[in-house]
Amino acid sequence: MSTDTDADARQQLIDLAAEFYDQFERGDVPSMTLPTRTKSNIEYDEASDVWVYGDRTSTRSANSVRGARKLLKAIYTIEFLARQLDEDRSSTLRELYYLSESWDAEEAQFNGQDESNKLVEDLEIVSEVKREDFHMRPEESGATLIGPLELIEQTRRGERQIHCQQDVGEGGYQIPNNPDTIQFTDHDIDFVLCVETGGMRDRLVENGFDTEYNCLIVHLKGQPARATRRVTKRLHDELDLPVLVFTDGDPWSYRIFGSVAYGSIKSAHLSKYLATPEARYVGIRPQDIVEYDLPTDPLADSDVNALESELEDPRFQDEFWTEQIELQLDIDKKAEQQALAANGLDFVTDTYLPERLTDMGVL
Q1: Which of 57, 167, 247, 337 could share a disulfide with 253, CB 3.0–4.6 Å?
Q2: CATH match for 4-137 among 3.90.190.20, 1.10.10.10, 1.10.340.30, 2.60.40.10
Q3: Cβ of 79: how many Cβ atoms within 10 Å?
Q4: 248 in a labelled binding site
Q5: Whether residue 281 lies in the annotated active site
Q6: pTM of the shown model
């Protein structure tokens, strides 16, 4: 089922290829200019509260054998993606890597999946089209949501109208690879709660937290996939809903919050589509470890290094995070969400979350 978005994405790809031919016609050496994709060229934009690329650029040019091979691979990939859109087909990033084995020019074949993944990201950047609009899929993330939300999903079998409580099982509604194919039609949601772990997500659903508090529970499945972050941003922007992120109490989980709220370095070119700067942290705090005497594990050296790094990270430069991170380094402990069960299976839904959300003005 081709759409106007498909046609626009295909045209952007054709325009990229046409630019190479125009360079040939002018007698120029074909080239493609991209932002320098290094950590030193990623900037935290305080105005928008997201990660963006800086001003430095690099050029892929055919004036060297290595550069010519990169452009050849780009041309073959553009041709494949344009044909895929024309035929209304889709493929995974993994399939693209293997498909290149059948390309007639051996120099156009990828040496590994990292190379093909980076090339797709390059094409996203120069075309300003998301890979989902190229019909490129990651491997399944399986992230889900459950709560009082009605939506329409565009599928190959036509439109599906779904209520994300009444029409789904306990597993919830699986977020599609491209959340822009769904339309929110109605809801009774008061806030969105993004949950790191499957165990805690299941506890909230079993205890009826989504029903009692008109909450949409989004399972992040650890570091959230792009589709998960995209749907979270849409829920906030289009439905004007508060977004809360509920994670474990360790530096890696704080970065999960950071990726939802401020974007990630790897996807800096997509921050305006994926990041929700207004998201707020409701996860396990070092302060909770002390106040609730939670079961803990000692910090590993890698945890300490990560926490010290976060003290310098622009995403965590405020009084709350400074206090909490310094406290965690002082007590030398970390705790999981499920540690709240030490106070009973209902503690998280009867006490912990209601109290935290009330303090934050959400309830």
Answers
A1: 247
A2: 1.10.10.10
A3: 15
A4: yes
A5: no
A6: 0.83
